[in-house]
């Protein structure tokens, strides 16, 4: 039980978060024309890659299609790093407790 609690808190040990992270990294890399390995939790799309609003909307559209859910524009713009975006999406997609 304690080990399962650790995996929920430690992003590196949470398989659900890792699947979502791969999806986000792939969408970002496809839109920006970079390798998924170049995108990690600390990546700032604005500061590191100077992403513009159209590119950000394209990332959002790809994620909406892949996740079969609507993503608010404010969710796309509020995350400062890719890791924050992954965590925000994970929280939005989590089943209500």
Automatic annotation (TrEMBL):
<dbReference type="InterPro" id="IPR009081">
    <property type="entry name" value="PP-bd_ACP"/>
</dbReference>
<dbReference type="InterPro" id="IPR036736">
    <property type="entry name" value="ACP-like_sf"/>
</dbReference>
<keyword id="KW-0596">Phosphopantetheine</keyword>
<dbReference type="Pfam" id="PF00550">
    <property type="entry name" value="PP-binding"/>
</dbReference>
<keyword id="KW-0597">Phosphoprotein</keyword>
<protein>
    <recommendedName>
        <fullName>Carrier domain-containing protein</fullName>
    </recommendedName>
</protein>
<feature type="domain" description="Carrier">
    <location>
        <begin position="18"/>
        <end position="93"/>
    </location>
</feature>
<dbReference type="InterPro" id="IPR020806">
    <property type="entry name" value="PKS_PP-bd"/>
</dbReference>
């Amino acid at each position: 039980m304690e080990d399962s609690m650790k995996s929920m808190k430690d992003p590196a040990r949470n398989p659900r978060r890792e699947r979502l992270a791969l999806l986000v990294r792939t969408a970002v890399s496809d839109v920006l024309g970079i390798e998924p390995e170049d995108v990690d939790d600390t990546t700032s799309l604005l500061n590191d890659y100077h992403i513009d609003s159209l590119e950000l909307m394209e990332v959002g559209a790809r994620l909406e299609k892949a996740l079969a859910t609507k993503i608010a524009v404010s969710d796309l713009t509020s995350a400062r790093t890719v890791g924050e975006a992954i965590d925000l999406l994970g929280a939005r997609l989590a089943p209500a407790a």
